[in-house]
Write a structure and sequence with these properties.
Order of helices and strands: HHEHHEEHHEHHEEHEHHEEEHEEEHEH
Strand order of the largest sheet: 10-11-12-13-14
Number of helices: 14
Distance between the termini: 63 Å
Length: 433
C-alpha cells in the first residue's frame, strides 16, 4: 500500500519556505562579501530583472533582503564580467539566472510576443546574419547601437506597446532563440548583446523533459515545499511539464510528497525537497520586494501567509488597495505589513506613501491571541501588535534608507493605510529620523 503523505501544519510550511529562501533568521552583521552574495545566488538561482526603479532595480533588492546593505557592484560582477557565472534570459519574466541553466530555459522558454516570425523571411535572414557578423567583430552593443550601424528597416506596425524597429525585433528574436547572449546592461538599463560563444561553450540544448526536470529540481530546493503550480511558476514552465518532472524527481529521491492544509480542511498535495529544513522558529526581518522569489507565485503567498498581494503599478489607480509600489514586511513568520515606498533621490529621502497592517489572524492555521476578538481585549491586542509592527518596520526602513544613500525616512502627510501614522511616530523615536 502507498503510505499516506504527511500533512504539514501551515506554520511548518511557512517556516520551511522561509528557511529555503534564507529568510528565516536575522541578517548576519558585518561586510557583505562576494562569497556571501554567491551563497544567496546559489540558493535562489533566479533574480527577476525589471526596468522599474521607484525604489531600486528589481534584481538588487532580494540580495539586500537576505544580506542587508551591500555594494551592488559586487552583484554586477557576476553577470557583467568574465567568466559571467550568471546571465540574463527569460525565466520568471526577464531574469538573471546561472549560466549553466540557460540551455534548460531555452528548451522551455519561447516568448512569442517579441518574435520576428512575421517579418519577411528573406529580410529576417539577412538581418540575422548581419547582426551576428557585427557582434562577432565589436564590443557588446545595445539595440540602439545595432540599429545605428545597420540602418533603418522600418518599424513594427502591430498592436502592442513598444513599437520596436524591425532590427530590434530580429535582435530580440536572436536573443530568445539563444543565438546571441546578454553581456549585461548599461547605465540606462539597456541590454548589451554579444555572441553566445563569448558567454559559454556550446553544450547543446536538452530535450524539453530533461530541461523541466532540471528546472524543477532547482526550484524545489529554493522553495522548500511547494505545489506543482508553484514549482512551475518559479521559471514559468507549463504546469503539466512540472507535474511530470516532480514524479521523476520523487522516484529519484529528490522530492517527497506531503500535504498542506487547504480551504475547508482539504489537504493540498505538495512536494518537499529532501534537503529542506523546518526550523522551530522563524525570526527574520526584511522588506520583500514585489519581484522577490519568495512571492513570485501570488496564490502561494495567500495560501501560506494569508496575505493578498498585488503590485499597484500594473493596476489602475482607482483599483489600488495597497499603493503604487508596495513591499511586504516580513517579521518572523508573518508578512506583517505592506508599505508603499519611493526613493526620492532629489530630496535624498525614502518616502513612505502608505502603510497597511496585516492581521495575524489571517495566517492559515493560526489564531493570534486577541486578534479578531471582540471588545476591549481585542482592541488592545490589535493596538499592541500594530505598535510592535510599526516599531520594527521603522527600524527596517531606516536601514534600507542608509543602503540607498538616503538621509531620512519621511512618511507623507497624506499617507494612506492604517499603519502609516503609527509608523511615523515610531520613526520619530529613532535618532536621525
Amino acid at each position: 500500500m502507498t503510505p499516506t503523505p504527511p500533512v504539514l501544519s501551515a506554520a511548518e510550511a511557512r517556516r520551511t519556505a522561509l528557511a529555503a529562501q534564507l529568510l528565516d533568521r536575522p541578517r548576519r552583521p558585518g561586510p557583505v562579501t562576494g562569497r556571501r552574495i554567491r551563497t544567496v545566488l546559489d540558493r535562489l538561482n533566479v533574480l527577476q530583472v525589471d526596468s522599474v526603479s521607484v525604489l531600486a532595480r528589481a534584481h538588487y533588492v532580494p540580495v539586500y533582503s537576505r544580506l542587508g546593505p551591500y555594494e551592488t557592484a559586487r552583484l554586477d560582477r557576476f553577470w557583467h564580467q568574465a567568466p559571467r557565472d550568471w546571465t540574463e534570459y527569460w525565466a520568471h519574466e526577464a531574469s538573471l539566472v546561472p549560466t549553466w541553466l540557460r540551455p534548460a530555459l531555452m528548451a522551455v522558454q519561447r516568448r512569442t510576443w517579441m518574435s520576428a516570425t512575421d517579418v519577411d523571411a528573406a529580410l529576417r535572414e539577412e538581418l540575422s546574419q548581419r547582426i551576428l557578423a557585427l557582434l562577432e567583430t565589436s564590443r557588446p552593443l545595445t539595440a540602439r547601437q545595432v540599429e545605428a550601424r545597420l540602418g533603418d528597416h522600418g518599424r513594427y506596425e502591430g498592436n502592442w506597446g513598444w513599437n520596436w524597429s524591425v532590427v530590434r525585433r530580429v535582435l530580440e528574436d536572436l536573443f530568445a532563440s539563444g543565438r546571441i547572449a546578454s553581456a549585461g546592461r548599461n547605465a540606462q538599463f539597456e541590454r548589451r548583446f554579444f555572441p553566445v560563444s563569448r558567454l559559454t561553450a556550446d553544450v547543446g540544448e536538452p530535450d524539453g523533459h530533461t530541461a523541466a526536470v532540471d528546472l524543477v529540481r532547482v526550484a524545489s530546493r529554493a522553495l522548500g515545499v511547494a505545489t506543482d503550480a508553484s514549482l512551475a511558476d518559479y521559471y514559468r514552465i507549463p504546469v503539466k511539464a512540472a507535474r511530470t518532472a516532480t514524479r521523476d524527481l520523487h522516484r529519484a529521491g529528490v522530492l517527497e510528497p506531503v500535504c498542506l492544509p487547504g480551504p475547508g480542511q482539504r489537504a493540498v498535495p505538495a512536494w518537499r525537497h529532501v534537503e529542506a529544513a523546518t526550523p522551530r522558529r522563524a525570526t527574520g526581518r526584511a522588506l520583500v520586494s514585489p519581484f522577490d522569489p519568495l512571492v513570485f507565485h501570488r496564490p502561494r503567498v495567500e495560501d501560506l501567509f494569508g496575505v493578498r498581494y498585488r503590485l499597484g503599478i500594473y493596476t489602475p489607480a482607482p483599483k489600488r488597495t495597497r499603493g503604487y509600489y508596495s513591499l511586504l514586511f516580513l517579521l518572523g513568520e508573518r508578512l506583517a505589513a505592506q508599505v508603499d515606498l519611493k526613493a526620492d533621490r532629489g530630496s535624498r529621502v525614502l518616502l513612505v506613501r502608505g502603510a497597511w497592517w496585516e492581521d495575524p489572524a489571517g495566517l492559515p492555521g493560526r489564531t493570534e491571541s486577541g486578534a479578531g476578538a471582540s471588545g476591549e481585549a481585542g482592541a488592545l491586542g490589535r493596538a499592541a501588535d500594530v505598535g510592535h509592527v510599526a516599531g520594527e518596520l521603522a527600524a527596517e526602513l531606516g536601514e534600507m534608507a542608509r543602503w540607498l544613500a538616503l538621509e531620512a525616512v519621511v512618511v507623507e502627510r497624506d499617507a494612506d493605510g492604517d499603519l502609516a501614522q503609527e509608523a511615523a511616530r515610531a520613526l520619530r523615536k529613532l535618532q536621525g529620523f
